[in-house]
Amino acid sequence: MLLVEVEGTHTLQNTYDSLDIHLGQSYSVLVTADQPAQDYYIVVSSRFTSQVLSATSILHYSNSAGSVSGPPPGGPTTQVDWSLEQARSLRRNLTASGPRPNPQGSYHYGLINTTHTVRLENSAPIINGKQRYAVNSVSFIPADTPLKLADYFKISGVFSLGSIPDNPTGGGAYIQTSVMAADFRGYAEVIFENPEDTLQSWHIDGHNFFVVGMDGGEWTPASRLTYNLRDTVSRCTVQVYPKSWTAVYMPLDNVGMWNIRCENWARQYLGQQFYLRVYSPANSWRDEYPIPSNALLCGKAVGHRTRSL
Fold this sequence. Notes:
Elements: E1 2-6, E2 9-10, E3 27-30, E4 39-45, E5 54-60, H1 80-88, E6 116-123, E7 126-127, E8 130-131, E9 134-135, E10 138-140, H2 147-152, E11 160-161, E12 174-176, E13 178-183, E14 187-194, E15 200-204, E16 209-216, E17 234-235, E18 237-240, E19 244-251, E20 256-262, H3 265-269, E21 273-279
Parallel strand pairs: 6-14, 10-12, 11-13, 13-21
Antiparallel strand pairs: 1-2, 1-3, 4-5, 6-9, 7-8, 14-19, 15-18, 15-20, 16-17, 16-19, 20-21
C-alpha cells in the first residue's frame, strides 16, 4: 500500500504492508495491480485488543488464474513500539499539493511560539459507585441547554469557564459540565497523557493540529527536544499509546464552542470529553457567523431571539 494522504495532508509516499488506523482516522493508499493474475487476501484485524477480530476480503484479478491459497495473513502483533515507529514515519510531503504560489509545507508551524500549554490526562474512575471516564479528573455530563446557545445568549447557570483544569490534578474525580477557555488566534501546545493500559484516540472538533511528538512514559518539558517541528502531518484525530503521551500544536483559528473527545464511544458517553471555548472579544461576523434566525432553541434558550443574517 502506497500511502498518499492522511486526513487532508499529502504525505511522503512510503509503502506499507500493513497500516494501523486508529479510531476516527482516515488514510488514502494506492495499490498497484502488478502481481501475477490470481486472487489475493485483504485482511482487516483489530489491534491492541484482548480478542483479535478479523475480516477478510478477496482482491480478484479479472483474468485470475486461480483462487487464494493458504491461510490469510496473520493478525497484528501487540507490539506498541512497532506501531509507534510507523506513526512517526507519517510525514508531510512538503513539495506536494498543486498549482499554488506556496507549497503545502510553507506553513512553518514549528517556528511559531506557543501561547500556552494544556496537558490532558484520561482516567477511568468509579464515581457514585458507577464506572465513569474522565479528563483531568473531570467526567463530563451534558447540560439541559446546548452550550453554544448558552454562550451565544449569555445564559448563566449552564456552564462555567475553567470548570476543567488545564493540567492533571491527581485528585478525586467528579462530574461536571466541563468547559475550558481559550483565546482566538492563540497557538496551543496540547499534550495527551495516557497512564492507562488501553490505547486512546482523541478528536478535536473545528480544528486541525500538528502531531509534533509521541513516546512512551511520562511527558516532561525535556520531551520537547524530540518534537518534529518541520514536516509532521496535520490531522484532527490522534492516538495515544498505553502509558504514553502524544503532543500536538494547534492554531486556535476558529471561534466557537468545540468538543474535544475520546473516539471510543463508550468512554465518550461516560464522560471522557469536554468543550473548548475559543473566544474573540471582537464579536465580528468575520470570525464567526451569528446563529441563523430560524435556529431551533431549547432548554434555557427558549424565548431568546436570534439576529437575522
